[in-house]
Specification:
The complex is a heterodimer of chains A (about 425) and B (about 200).
Chain A lengths: L1 H14 L28 H24 L2 H18 L6 H13 L7 H17 L2 H6 L1 H9 L8 H7 L2 H14 L5 H4 L4 H5 L4 H14 L5 H5 L2 H11 L17 H5 L5 E2 L14 H30 L3 H17 L11 H9 L3 H38 L8 E2 L9 H5 L8 H4 L8
Antiparallel strand pairs in A: 1-2
Helix pairs in contact in A: 2-3, 2-5, 3-7, 4-5, 4-9, 5-14, 7-12, 9-14, 9-19, 16-19, 17-19
Chain B lengths: L2 H8 L7 H27 L6 E5 L9 H5 L7 E5 L35 E7 L2 E6 L9 H9 L4 E5 L11 H5 L5 E5 L10 H4 L2
Antiparallel strand pairs in B: 1-6, 2-5, 3-4
Chain lengths: ~425, ~200
């Protein structure tokens, strides 16, 4: 009996047009279960995230500039690692907010949520006022790398300079892919997010582990050679109102601060035999200045040549390209089943959409990529030339100071500096201050 | 001339140099620019509604990537049952494997790999099926079974108490059928038996 019934039902079910909602059977004594679904997360969490960020930034700035306490900074960074990293699982974060902001700026119907705008804005503002407080003890990425740093070794200057170029490239690509609505590559390839979430693909966990192992010997590899938000923080930090100070009047040129810094952020005094007169370097500087517009234009052109490869990162462009190839094959008389097809193109064919529409859409996105890659090239040219100009300006430095751009305000040098922590240096050197 | 030397010549360490003046004017302009950008973004988002991700069940092809690609583990995508369009079949092709040994609750008959569907007798000839969400991992095997032979009342939905609402949803990036859509957070589900959703 049951089998026959089942057979009948099996026969009847497909007859009902699939998908059209229909009335359920008339039960004699049974009500349909109600299905209440949980609503999206309340906005309260957003308020909490914003206030924690504000408080952490303010406290860090206080600890860095007023208290000069490495211990305080360290413990605060552990808290941030716990809250922003493992509790909030690394999302929302200012590094990723770059992408929301650029998408909101460039595409007309995309809106960035308030929390994201806040996360983008506040660390930059603090950076313009107090230096890179965000990096010091708020950023979970920085905290996890700072925590594993056991035996810092110095990166050769040439390598440091070369790798230091990468964040600018990464920032440009991140903005391009987000602005065209293609992908959020900064989030997709974030090495630590898999660790914060304690789950993720083997590749991502492996990348995270690699960064942590490298980070045991090279201070903050992600921050120095990857972080796109670090580029922005660095720029604002160059003009910051306050910064990590090695008190000039208490400095005894002991170079302990330089020794303590794992990030090569302390600028040393110019050795006497390396003092170059400003006039001597002028010829080179003029050459660099003259070359600047040409380099920028040239790299822009080179960038535009890259646009077909960059555009392949967009799924619509990729799909359009594949469909186009398939159509060419079909015209040649090859059967569709003989062509190797991706899942995307199969579902697209199932939908019976108009290929013209797809091609127009892809063409439009490609146009955005073309303009974008011109700008990327020019931007990288500008960065390169500014770096060259900086190298060719010879300034005599007669005091140790923390570099405004590269200093993460971690506070390690405070512990090492004999003149720090409020102990007057006169006391230590027998009342004599060395004059330059 | 170095900075320290300059200051000691001037006999006043707090004296402003040309560099300091340049720096503070650049700082002022850049903060102004930052505030302007932020203001325009806030203005743009002032009266916009908040959006969250949801699966359009009519586009979904049950490829199984929802189970494997979500950043939350197990996935924030789970099967739901649109009771309003279920046939209440005895031989439910979402519940039973094709060609089951018996039409009963025996484990060898289950389609679901995680025992996430319960079956309850109501009255002849009707059976009711419910999703046990704690067990469901969003593999969509039941969805496939129900849509192939049944009414298609089982379908996938993102559960918003689990979803962390990444701006770039990694299942969306992997989805071959473009089924992920942004929906207003005030009405965050697309149920198949919800007629208001149906005709959109």
């Amino acid at each position: 009996m049951i089998k026959r019934l089942a057979f009948i039902i099996l026969l009847v079910c497909p007859l009902v047009l699939w998908g059209e909602p229909q009335d359920p059977p008339d039960f004699t004594d049974h009500a349909l279960p109600s299905d209440d679904r949980p609503t999206p997360r309340a906005w309260l969490m957003g308020i909490m995230d914003m206030s924690v960020l504000f408080l952490a930034l303010s406290l860090t700035s206080f600890l860095v500039l007023k208290k000069r306490s490495r211990k305080g900074i360290y413990f605060l960074s552990l808290f941030s690692l716990g809250y922003f990293g493992f509790f909030r699982e690394g999302c929302v974060c200012p590094i990723g907010s770059i992408q929301n902001i650029s998408q909101a700026l460039f595409s007309p119907n995309f809106v960035a949520p308030l929390v994201v705008i806040f996360y983008f804005f506040l660390p930059l503002l603090y950076s313009a006022l107090f230096g890179r407080s965000y990096c010091a003890a708020v950023c979970p990425h920085g905290a996890i790398q700072d925590a594993v740093l056991v035996k810092p070794i110095q990166v050769p200057t040439w390598l440091d300079n070369a790798l230091g170029f990468l964040p600018f490239v990464y920032l440009a690509l991140g903005v391009l892919y987000a602005a065209t609505g293609s992908a959020y590559i900064i989030c997709d390839y974030d090495p630590f997010i898999a660790i914060f979430r304690l789950s993720g693909s083997a590749n991502m966990l492996g990348l995270g582990a690699l960064f942590l192992i490298v980070g045991m010997f090279i201070g903050r590899p992600y921050c120095r050679y990857m972080c796109p938000y670090g580029v922005l923080l660095r720029m604002f930090s160059y003009v910051s109102k306050f910064k990590v100070e090695i008190f000039p009047d208490r400095c005894i040129d002991c170079s302990l601060c330089d020794y303590s810094c794992p990030f090569d952020a302390i600028r040393k005094t110019t050795p006497e035999n390396q003092v170059i007169s400003a006039r001597k370097g002028k010829g080179k500087l003029i050459m660099v200045l003259v070359a600047t517009p040409f380099v920028i234009a040239g790299l822009g052109w080179l960038g535009s040549k890259m646009s077909p490869y960059l555009a392949r990162g967009n799924e619509i462009v990729r799909l359009a390209y594949e469909i186009e190839q398939q159509e060419i094959q079909l015209d040649k008389g090859v059967a569709l089943s003989k062509i190797k097809r991706s899942e995307e193109s199969e579902t697209w064919r199932d939908r019976n959409d108009d290929p013209k529409e797809l091609f127009i859409r892809a063409e439009e996105i490609y146009g955005q990529f073309y303009i974008g890659s011109w700008f990327i090239g020019m931007w990288l040219g500008l960065v390169l030339m500014v770096k060259l100009i900086k190298i060719n300006i010879h300034r005599i430095r007669d005091e140790y100071e923390a570099d405004r751009g590269s200093c993460y305000s971690c506070g390690r040098c405070y512990d090492y500096c004999p003149g720090s922590n409020g102990i007057p240096i006169q006391f230590k050197t027998g009342g004599q201050i060395r004059t330059p | 001339m170095g900075d320290r030397l300059r200051r000691s010549f001037l006999r006043d360490p707090s004296l402003k140099t040309r560099k300091d003046f340049l720096r503070s004017s650049i700082r002022g302009t850049s903060i102004l620019g930052l505030v302007a950008i932020t203001g325009s973004l806030l203005n743009k988002g002032a009266d916009a509604e908040e959006y969250v991700w949801q699966i359009n069940p009519n586009k979904c092809t049950e490829c199984g990537k929802c189970e494997t690609h979500c950043v939350v583990n197990p996935s924030a995508v789970k099967a739901v049952h649109a009771f309003g369009m279920c046939g209440y079949c005895d031989l439910c092709t979402a519940y039973f494997v094709p060609d089951p040994f018996n039409l009963n609750e025996g484990a060898e008959n289950h389609m679901c790999p995680t025992d996430a569907i319960s079956r309850k007798y109501i009255e002849e000839p009707y059976y009711e099926y419910k999703i046990k969400e704690d067990n469901c991992v969003g593999c969509a095997k039941c969805v496939d079974g129900c849509r192939t032979y049944g009414n298609g009342s089982m379908h996938l939905q993102i559960q918003h108490d689990i979803c962390v609402d990444c701006d770039s949803c990694s299942i969306d990036n992997a989805c071959p059928s473009d089924a992920f859509e942004k929906v207003p957070s005030s009405n965050p589900y697309k149920f198949k038996d919800d007629l208001t959703n149906w005709h959109q």
